[in-house]
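Hello,

Our lab assistant flagged a job as stuck in the queue for most of the afternoon. It eventually completed. Since we weren't sure the result was trustworthy after the delay, we are filing this so someone can double-check. Below is the sequence as submitted and the structure that was eventually returned. Let us know if re-running is recommended.
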Amino acid sequence: MDALEARVHRQLERMRELADRMAAVRVRETSADGVVTAVVDGNGALVDLELSDGVAELSPTDFEQTLVSTAASAARRAFAERGALVTGFNEEAAEDG
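-- returned structure --
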């Protein structure tokens, strides 16, 4: 019984650690021209946006495309990071099986 209880506590602690690490995911991406920098969280939500002075030289359409593509790239990287965390968690869980 003690071994089972210890195993459950280890699994619970690993799950809490996974949740904390997933909540801490932040990815920063800057457009190729350096005009837009987007920061997203692990859910792909935009949490920060920085625009350089060069934004004034972009047309509205170019600005929109740059913003969307930069934020989307950051979101893809954030999802990949979260996926790697989950994969690592699952591999550890399988080893403890």
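-- support follow-up --
The delay was a queue issue, not a problem with the job. The result is valid. Residues 2-96 form a domain with the Ybab; Chain: A; fold (CATH 3.30.1310.10). The mean pLDDT is 93.
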